[in-house]
């Protein structure tokens, strides 16, 4: 059926409207505190929605339904771990972030260990966040190319430029408040899509349930004691806990939002309430995938990739107007995630690197350089997205795998800093290198599958393994260093 003028008008109005809305905040950015932390004056509910938007990309909206289409609902076990991880962050990490006037997560590392380790952790964040975000931006091209018939590179460029405009001008305030609008749009649009699919399946929910149940699509829990399966209860909850503790507790993308809260209590409220929203959201996307299976009942290979099923359904099966709304909803998720990445990459570049060498730079110049850094990172992410074309599989898993390569090393170092007094900078550095090398090894096993590298460890275990290696090696090397200096033996 394809999109008609009504659908294209809705999409155009959304793109123009959200860009203009974000530009409303450009005159409020007079200092780095304004540009990167929105003057720490954002209410908790807005931060909660922004956190949800920041961890929800086009990957989530198009790939999670594809995952459920191919498998079942067991991915929800990972989301249960997301909830546990948020509780751990609230108890262990957030109190440390609110002691002092911090702008980035990595300032905490310098305060505990020293400048060298701060630069190392911040640099690792920049590299892995850029790589993971490149895959997420690439996912936008799947949707836009199907919906508008544009080339993949042109599709990536369109979304990158429009997102850059308001992020460049408005800083974190523009990012958070556009996130709020975009979250409402993509969740609301997905709900409309769900009821539309239900109407299109002959027999309604009863037919969906019967088809899904007979194919084993409604299974949520898998208690199989199999380390090599990615979505068992153990891998999901344990792996999801470590992943979220790392991504929301050490990644500047999320920590920046938590630091923008008015106080620690509001930050905790925002983080915990975002977990409830995430559980609802992932359940919604998974159910959409199950319903699409009941509608098509053909292998996902018929669509080329499972990631193409939901966008293809929207364009070819949805009534006009609704299809335009759903495409706009998917673009909303893409733009909210991209804007978050641009602002966090810029803040780490300026605060953790540039100002370390040029601390006397005046406030006006700092804001100007922050905007330039935002532009540079937009070009980098555009380039990485183009390189990702035709080189990745199911994009949500690839994106999570890339991000997980660094998360274990980062989380291990942060835990060394807040849970121990004996760990030192040399030990933490050694632990971080070993943890990162271990996770990179696991990722290469999955990516290239060479026989000499051994078996494939599921991505759900990456962060836990990296954290344990980093913490263990870091603590052990620190103890050896103390013994060599004649200090007391570590206990």
Please give a quick description of this structure.
The protein is an all-alpha fold and 491 residues long. The protein has 19 helices and no strands.
Amount of beta strand: under 5%
- Taking all Cα atoms into account, the compactness measure Rg is 22 Å
Helix residue percentage: over 70%
Euclidean distance between termini CA atoms: 69 Å
Low-confidence stretches: none
Apparent shape: globular
Structural class by SSE content: mainly alpha
Largest sheet: none
Explain this structure to me?
The model has no long low-confidence stretch (mean pLDDT 86). With 491 residues, the chain is an all-alpha fold. The longest helix has 49 residues, at 152-200. The protein is built from 19 helices and no strands. It has one domain (5-390): Sodium/glucose cotransporter (Up-down Bundle).
What labels describe this entry?
491 residues, mainly alpha, 19 helices
